[in-house]
Fold Disease resistance R13L4/SHOC-2-like LRR domain-containing protein.
Amino acid sequence: MGSISKPRPLDNQATTTSIASTTTIDNNDYHDRAAALSNMIRQDLIFMKKAMAEVQKYADQMNLRIKKTCEKFEELETRGGSERELGKLKKTVKKFKSQIPSKFRIHYADSEQRPNPWLDGSINRSSNQIHANNKADDHDNISQSLREGPKFEQTTAFEQFKISFLGLNSTLRVCLLCFLRFPEMVAIKKKLMIHWWIGEELLSPIPMDQKTGLLLRKTAEDLGNEFMDELIAKGFIEPIYKNCSLVVDCCRMWPHILSALTIVAERFVFRPICPPSFAQYYENRCLLNISEAIIDDMLEKFSEVNRLKILYLGRWQSSATHHIEVADNKILHGLKNMNQLRFLSLRGISMITMLPSFILQLTNLKILDLIACHNLEVVPDGIGLLKSMTHLDMSECYFLDHMPKTLGSLLQLEVLKGFVIGQSTDKKSCTIHDLIKLSKIRKLSIYTSSKEFPTNKQVCGLQRLKALQKLKISWSGCISQGETDDTPMQVRAQVQGHTTNLRRLPTSYWSDDPKFPCSMQKLVLECFPMMIISSSLLPANLKQLYIRGGQLSDLGPIASTTVNKLRLKYLSKLEMHWTEFRTLFPNLIYLEKVECPTLANFPCDENGVWMNNSQGFM
C-alpha cells in the first residue's frame, strides 16, 4: 500500500481567504444551477398543463367524430349499405383507429385472438393481394403467448418469417434490422429511417442503369423510398398516413414481427448493448436517444467513441409533445472527436443557442437535422466547410434572422430547409443569389419576413436552380382579422367591389417574367400576404400546390392544367364556386379543403377531401 504524504502547513489568513472565496463561488454555482433547474421545472409544468388542455380538446373532438361514425354505421346496417359505402366507412374507422395511442392498441390487440397473417403465407404476396385479402387489422391480432412462448422459433409462423426475411437482398435486410432500435408499435417517420439508412451508407445515388446505360438520376432518397415501399408491400412494416394524405408519413412494426426479427438478428450481432434510455448498436456506430428528456453527461461518456456514424440525440417521436433539452451548451463538446459522423440530429432540443465551432470539423457529415431547435440563434459562418453535406434542415428555428454566406459553398447539398431571408443588410448574410451554384438542390424551404418576397431578382436566382423540384415559402407576420392589409389600394378596391372579376385583373403588380424553374413539381405557400397570386409563381409543370393561411382571395391567375393535387387550408377570404374551380384545375385528382368557409358547394367528404376516382389515385 502506498504511503500518504503529510500536507504542508498553510498560512491561516491565506487559507481563510481561499476558503471564503471558494465558498462564495460554490454558493453562486449552486444558486445558478438551482435557479436553472427551477426554471426548467416551471416551464415543464406550464407545458404539461397546456398540453393536457389540448389533449382533452382533442379527445372531445375524437369522441364526437366516433359518435357520428357509429350513427352512420347503424344507419348503413339498418338500410343495408352498399359495398362502396361500407368500404368508405371502413377507411374512416381505420383512420380513427390509427390515432389511438399505441400502448392502448397493444393492450386491446393482446386481449383478443385473431388470425396470424404469417400462417397463411400472405407475407409473400404482392401489395395488392395483401390489401385485398388481409386487412391491415390482422397484424395487431397476434397473441402474446405466440410471441413470447418458449417454442416460438419452432412455429410455422417463425419459419415463414425467416424465409421471407432471407428472401430480401442483403442491403434490404440491414435496412429492416434498423427497426430494432425502436420500441414496438411506435410511429416512426419514414424520412427518419431513410436518413438513417443514408447515414449508414446503405443508400447511394444511382446516376444510371448499369445494364442499359440509361440516365436514371436516382437519388439516395429515391432509393430509400423504394426500399420502404418494398418492406411495406411484403408486410414487414405497416404504413401510417398523415390525416387524409395519399403519401406514407410514418411506419411501425407489429410486436410479433419485431419478436421474430430480434431472433433472426442475433446472427448479425445486432443487439443493444447500452442502457434502456439510449440504444447503441454494433461496434459503437450508432447512438439513438430513446427516452432521455434532459441530456446532461450521457454524451460525454461516448465522446471518445470516434467510430460513431449516426448520433440521434433529438426527438424521433412523431409527436411534438416529446420535450428534450440540454442542461448546458457545453454538453455538445462531446461531439469533438466524432469525426466519422454522417448523420447528426439535434431535432427539438431546447436550450441550444449556438452550435460549437468544432462541429465544422465533422467533414464526413452528410445530414444535419436542427428542426425545432427553438433557442438556436446562430449558424456558424464556417458551415461551408462541411463539403460532404447533402441535407441541412433548420425548419422551426425561429430565432435565426439570417443565414451565413458560406451556405453557397455546400455544392453537394440536395435539401435545404429553413433558409431565412430577413431584413438584415449585412453583406455576410446569404441571399438567394448566393445559392445559384448549388446545382443539386432538389428541395428548398424559405422563411421570410418580407412581404415583397420574391422580387424579380430573387425569382431569377431561383430559376437558376435547375434541379429544384419542391419549394416551400413561409411568410411571417400574417395579417389577422382586424389588422391592416397592405395590398395596394387599386387592387384592394377592385377586390372589394368586384370579387368575382378578379380572374380578369392585370397582374402588373408582379412580373410574369421570369418564372420559377420548370423542374419544380411541388409548391407550398404558407401565410401568403397578398390577395392574388401572380402566375409567375406557378411553374409550367407543377403537379402539387399547397396553400395554407394568408390573405389569398382568388385562384384565377394560377389556373393550371398540370396541377393534380391541391391543398387549401385556412383561407377565409377565398371565395369560389365548385363549377368555376373545376374549370381552373381540370386535371385535379386530389383536393383537400380545410376551413375555407366561402368555397361553395365543394363535394368534399367529412375530412375535407375530394378525389377524382375516374382518374385514379396518385
Q: What stands out?
A: The chain has three domains: 109-263, 272-449, 452-479+491-618. The radius of gyration is 28 Å. Confidence is low (pLDDT under 50) at residues 1-26, 105-148, 272-276, 479-511.
